[in-house]
């Protein structure tokens, strides 16, 4: 757990007394409340995430996800049991991933179908789209499921690999607890803290998924007609910018490193997926 204002490590988010009185922990480093979101409604947290506030992302990963995950890890001592409880530890992420996946499948299908139906005679029509929409509804649905699944897996896998091998995300951390209230003199030495690799992978997946929620806004554009080409481009750019900011805040890396990783992941997602899908449809 950390202070969401200055990112200093803390022992607890709040103290509970016998009279059920709860007092939020005050960070000894910056003098601010360590985590104000423990008293806020989830709606406030969601709005702050959309506004790309660093405090909201720190709370989400280090004081919410970390607490749930490490509690179950400490309860299971062997590696096999930890793997078995993976879905239980990260059920929040799994639910969000499924929800985002289904929405993205629907949005991609709906917009490409609309673009195909408003095609003007005399203009070149992509052979790939013509081939897809000549198939049955079931085959179209399977195509978009497999396409979005492949794109998402490629995008997340590239980010995971580059952060783990290129940047060193997930390495043991030296944390100095000297500024934490209540620590004895024997505990004042720097401590090596190493979380399970699954936690770092889950944290990256979580922040990339949550920060990409702005990409769901085009759902409203299916209800109220707008200049879809321009707005979709703006929303996509805003979503990628949100992901970039989230990576910088949570992983504590320079902007140029996060930009490079995100750029490579986007190129891999769209370039590699189109090549594979084109080859599969050509074989089909």
Automatic annotation (TrEMBL):
Predominant location category: endoplasmic reticulum
Gene Ontology CC terms, in alphabetical order: cortical endoplasmic reticulum; endoplasmic reticulum membrane; Golgi membrane
Species of the source: Babjeviella inositovora NRRL Y-12698
Localization per Swiss-Prot or TrEMBL: Endoplasmic reticulum membrane; Golgi apparatus membrane
InterPro entries reported in the protein's UniProt record: Arv1
Family, per entry: Belongs to the ARV1 family.
Pfam families in the cross-refs: Arv1
Designated name of the protein: Protein ARV
